[in-house]
Amino acid sequence: MTLVRIGIRVTGHLIDFCSVEALELADGASISDAIDLLGIPVEQVGLVSIDGQAVSRAKRDQTRLVDGNEMVVMAPLTGG
Amino acid sequence: MQRSLHMEPSLCTGCLQCEMACSFEHEGEFIPARSRIRVFEFEHGRTSVPYTCTQCVEAWCMKACPTNAISIDSDLGAKLVSAQACVGCKACVSACPFGTIEFNPFSGKVDKCDLCGGDPQCVAACPTDAITYVDAGASGVGRMASAAQQINQETAS
Amino acid sequence: MSWQGKILRVNLTTHEITPEALNMEWAKDYIGERGLGTKYLWENMDPKADAMAPDNVLIFATGPLTGTNASTSGRYAVITKSPLTGAIACSNSGGKFGAELKYAGFDLLLVEGRSENPVYLLIEGDEISLAPAEKIWGKTVWETDEWIKKQHHNPMLKIATIGIAGERGARYASVVNDLHRAAGRSGVGTVMGSKNLKAVAVRGTGGVRVKDPKRFMTVTQEMKNLLAEHTGGLTKYGTNAMMDTMQEFGGLPTRNFQEVQFEGADKVDAKAMMKTDDTGHTNLLTNKACFGCTIACGRIAHIRQDHFTIQNRKEYWHASGGLEYETAFAFGPVIGVDDIDACTFAGYLMNEHGIDPISFGVTLAAAMELFEMGVITTEDTDGVPLNFGNAEALTVMAEKTGKQEGFGVMLGLGSRLMCEKYGHPELSMTVKGQEFAGYDSRALQGMGLGYATGNRGACHLKHDTFEVDMDDQTGDGKADPCKTSQDWTAAVDSSGLCMFTMGAWGAPEFAAQLDADSEGDWTAERLMESGERIWNLERMFNLAAGLTKADDTLPERLLKDPAPSGTAKGKVNELDKMLPEYYDLRGWSEDGVPTDDTLGRLGLG
Fold this sequence. Notes:
The structure holds 3 protein chains of 3 kinds. By secondary structure, chain B is α+β, with helices and mostly antiparallel strands. Chain B has helices spanning about 15-25, 60-65, 90-95, 120-125, 140-155; strands spanning about 5, 40, 45-50, 70-75, 80, 100-105, 110, 130-135.
C-alpha cells in the first residue's frame, strides 16, 4: 500500500486538538479522512486549504490528497 | 464532616456570578450590593479575589452582639444571625475585623454568609471553581499538590 | 420586570436632571440597549444636527438582560450622532458600568445640551448630581477613575470617562469604562467631550428582578452549559486566536491594506502572547471576564520592563488590558509592526487617553503610506519617520494622538480628512469615514457587503458572514446571510448580552432567556423582527442625516486592486453584484431607501 505524506498546520484553538506537523495516509485518502485522523471535530473546522487553495466543505470528501501536499486546517472565525 | 469555603484567586475571572447567586438566594433578585460575598479587583484586573465570612470558631461578631442574636450552627460551623433577635445596633459590624458582616438598610438587620444551609450558591454559580466548599481540615491540599508537582518537575528534569 | 422602567434625562445646558418613565411601547418594539437607544435618539434630536453641537443627544443604554445572571450580561451601548461619520454611532462595551447603571435603577441615560463648564455626572443610589470637573479636565482616564473614587470615598463607583483626546475633539475618541473596557468606535467620546461632560460615575445599590425567576435560573444555567461547550478557544486564547487563521486564510490587512498576509503575524498572535521569552517574561498574565460573563475572553497583560517603551517609565510597569484581535491588527499587521510589547503599550495608551484603536491604527497606516510615497516628510511628523514597521513611531504617535499634540492632531482627524488634506483620498481605508477592522473584503466577500452597508460605517461587528465567506469566496448568495445576520446582530446588541455568544446561541436560545426575563411574549421570530426594525430605523436616521446610496461603497483598493496572495489571490470585492440584491432583499428601492411597504410592515411608517 503506497503512502501519501502531507504537511499539516492548524490555526487558532485547533492546536489543542492536533499539534502534529506531518501525516501519513493511505493513497487516495481524502481531506475528510485526514481531518478524522487528526482528531479534529468537523464542526470545529472553519476552512481547509491545500497548498494555499481553499477547498469548500462540500468538496472535502472527494478531494484526494497527493504526496507533498501542505494542508492547513483553520479554526472558524467569530467577531473580535 | 465540616466544610468551609475555599477561595482560589488565581482561578477567579471577576465575572461576579457568585455575587448574583448569593443575592438571588437571599433577596430573590440580582442585587450584588446585598451579596454577602464580594470580589475585589487589583492592578487593573490582574487579580480578582472573592471574599466573605470565613466562620471564625471564636467569632468577634458573636461576642460583640448585645442580644445574643448570633449563634453557631454546629453541623455547618456557620455563625447565623437571628432576624428576630437582631436590633440593628451594628456592634458586630465594628467588631468584625474582616468586614464580612454588614448592616442591611432595607431590613434593619445585619447580613453575613450563612453557607446557604450547607449548599453554598456561590460555589454552584462559579464557572471556574475559584470558590469550592471543601473539608475544612484540608482546604490547603490543592495548593500543596501543585507545590509538590512543581518540585516533582524540577527533580524529574 | 427586567427593565427598571425608568430613564434619566440630563440637560447639561440647564443642569436639570429628570427621571422619566421608560416608554414601554418602545421597549416592546426595540427591546433595549442598541434598539431602544436608537429609538430615543430618533425621537429626541434632528438627525441633521451637527454632531459636535449641543443639540446632539448622547445616550447610555442597558438591555433587559443587563445585570441578570444570564452569561455575558454586562453589555451597554453608547448611542449618538458620530462626528467621524455624520451617521449614527452605536458603540457597545462590557466591563461593569452597564450593570451598575441598571442597579442604580435606570434602563437608559439620555444626555442633551452642553455644560458651560466641565462637569461629571455622579449617581450614588438616589443621590444624583452634576459635579464640577475642573480638577479632572485634562486628566487621563486612569487618573480620573482614581480621583473620583477617592473624592467620594466610594471605591464601589463604576466610572465611564473620556481622556484628553475626547476633550480636545479628536474625531474618534472613545468612552472608557472600568479602566480598559471601551465603547470604542465612531467618536462617542468626542461627543461627550463636546458637551463638557468628563465622566459618568455610578454606584447602584438596587437590584434587577425577572419575570419568572424559577424558569430564568433553569434556562440561564442550560445556556451557560451550552456556552461552555462552544467557547473554550475564546476563553483560553482570547479574540486574538483569529490572527493566525486570518494570516493563513489571506484576509489579514497589511501595510494599509496593500497586502493580505503579514510575515510578522506569528510575533503578535495569541500564541506569541503566551510564549515565555529568554528573560522569563510572558506578555499574557491571565484572562478576565466582563460582568456576568462565563466565557472571560478578556486579556490582562504586562510589558517587559526593559522594553524601549517603558524602561524609564515606571508608571507603566503595572498590568492592564492586553491585546485583542482588533488591537493586535491595528498596531501590528496594518502598519507592519511585529513588536508585541510595543503593540501592548499602544493598547495601554488607547485606554488611558480614550481613543479608538482601530481608527487610530488604520489612520496611522494611511499616514505611513503617505510618508513612504514622500507626500509627507519628517518635517510634517515632528521628526518621526513614519515607515511601515517602525514600532517606535507607533507608540510615539499613539501618545501624541492621545494628548492631541503635534502630528497627533492631524492623525486625530481620521484617515478620510487627513488623506483629503494631503490630496490622496484613495489611501483612506474607510466607509462613511470610519476605518476598517481586521478583515479584508477581497477575501471575505459578505464581510465587504457588511462593511459597505453598515449603518455606522466600516465595522465588523454588525453582521456575521464568516462561515459562508470562508466556505465560498465569491459574492454569490452573500446578500441574504449578510442581511439576516445584520438583523439578528441588532437584536443581540439590544438584549444586554454579548455577541460572542452567537457561536453557541441562536435565536431560540436568546428568546428563551429573554422570555423568562422580560414582560411580553418573546419568541425567535419577534426578536428577528425587532432586529430588522432597529436596522431600518438606523437607516432612516442616516438618510435623514444626509447619507445616500453613494455612501454604501468600499475604497477603490478593495474594488480594483486584487488581493496579492492568500486563498483569495487575484480577487476583488464584488460589491456591484451584491448591493442591488441586498437592497431588494431589504425591501428598499434601488436608491437604498426603505419602501413604504417595508416601513409599514415594521411599524415605521
